[in-house]
Amino acid sequence: MQAWLGLPYSIRTGKPAWERNHGSAFFDYLQNHREQQAVFDAAMTSLSGPEAEALVEAYDFSALHKVLDVGGGHGTLLASILKRNPTLRGGIFEQLQVLESARSAIQCAGLSDRCEFVAGNFFDSIPEGYDAYLLKYVIHDWSDDNAIRILRNCRQAMSERSKLLLMEMINSPVASSEVAAVSDLEMLVLLGGQERSEQDFASLLGEASFRLNRILPTRSPLSILEALPIVSESEGG
């Protein structure tokens, strides 16, 4: 609420009111306040269940062998995918303080033998060796420059046959839903991010050497944006 009270500041400057009010960036603040981190994680998990089912229904994961959920939280999405696709293996890439809870959740789901856990920061690098990279509610958190940095790290980790799956709301200046409009402001005041249009996503992906292949709507507010690597001559042999 304190951040939302700073909405005029964010609109004028494009900067997150949260950082101005609390003296640190949103995720840095959570990392240093474990009780609030736990509340935030629980809130995200409560949203993830129905959305995960909708995403799994909308996309055919059966042809894939190994998927990485980048910023995968407590593993709700990956667990839903693995349950639906018994031959698939997966990984969760998260900050170290989140992985402990993810391990516990995946173990409770009986999926530990098909899941690996990798600690790291997606601004530094992203693990190689997966044929699909999933980013749910990641890109909307960040400015264009930071979003491109994350996407470029994904591209660096991927082979020419890998797929990138962004799971985000599609916003439009002409036909914005109430959910997307409110979330757009929420991203602004908390993080300096935004909800984006199809054209916005295509532009970001192009900057990171991807092409937007298709967009799949789901019965949730999220759509799945499937992007494929643009292959250089050296990669193509």
Quick description:
47% of the residues lie in helices and 18% in strands. With 237 residues, it is an alpha/beta fold.
Descriptors for this entry?
single chain; 237 residues; alpha/beta; Rossmann fold; 7-stranded mixed sheet; 11 helices; 18% strand
Count of the domains = 1
Tell me what the CATH architecture is.
Answer: 3-Layer(aba) Sandwich
How many beta-strand segments?
A: 7
Provide the spatial order of strands within the biggest beta sheet.
Answer: 3-2-1-4-5-7-6
Determine the structural class based on helices, strands and strand pairing: alpha/beta
CATH H-level name... which superfamily? Vaccinia Virus protein VP39
Strand content: 15-25%
Q: What does the model show?
A:
By secondary structure, the protein is α/β, with parallel strands linked by helices. The protein has one domain (36-230): Rossmann fold (3-Layer(aba) Sandwich), CATH 3.40.50.150. 47% of the residues lie in helices and 18% in strands. It is built from 11 helices and 7 strands. β4 (132-136), α8 (144-157) and β5 (163-168) form a beta-alpha-beta unit. It is globular. The N and C termini lie far apart (54 Å).
